[in-house]
Write a structure and sequence with these properties.
about 200 residues; Rossmann fold; three-stranded antiparallel sheet; globular; ABC_Transporter_VariousFunc; ABC transporter ATP-binding protein; transport; ATP-binding
Amino acid sequence: MLEVDHLQMSFQGQEVIKDATFTLEPGDLVHITGPNGCGKSTLFKAITGIYQATGGKCTLGEKDEIGALIENPGFLEFADLKSNLSFLAKLKHEFDYNYTQTFCQRLGLDLASKQRMSKYSIGMRQKAGIIQAVMEKQNVILLDEPSRGLDADSLLAFADLVNDLAKEGRSVVIASHDQVPGINYNKHYVLEQGVLTQNEN
């Protein structure tokens, strides 16, 4: 479980996040929407510890692990997909090829391909970013504008994937300015003028 309690984030005296509070329970599928530049990426960076929050706190359960895709994913550009995902996994865990392959197959990537990441399209890079956020069985998953560059078939596959993750009891938070059809959100929030507000509709 993740608890975000009155989180605040400022840069050089300018408040980007004024007040963000929410609780993430197992199996939650949460949508955070808001205009471009409203602070969605900043919120995720504060939750993951990339940024040090200037106020409030984030509390993660002892057995919980965060997987995140924030902004444009970065990779080893002259290595292939398997090398990249294996490198990322081995920072904390062993690389599970077969488990990772199931996500690649669902999203239409070839884990055995020798193609360099530098040759990947925006959509292919986005899929690889999504995979690295879930391939280590992370149970708190933060996805920032995950539909960027995805075609219609890939959007359907992505929606099915996140719905299945939630059914497994893994919690997914998607921050985006658009709606991906078919995702069964159970909580909706709006981030506007630095304040996160729950939308009951």
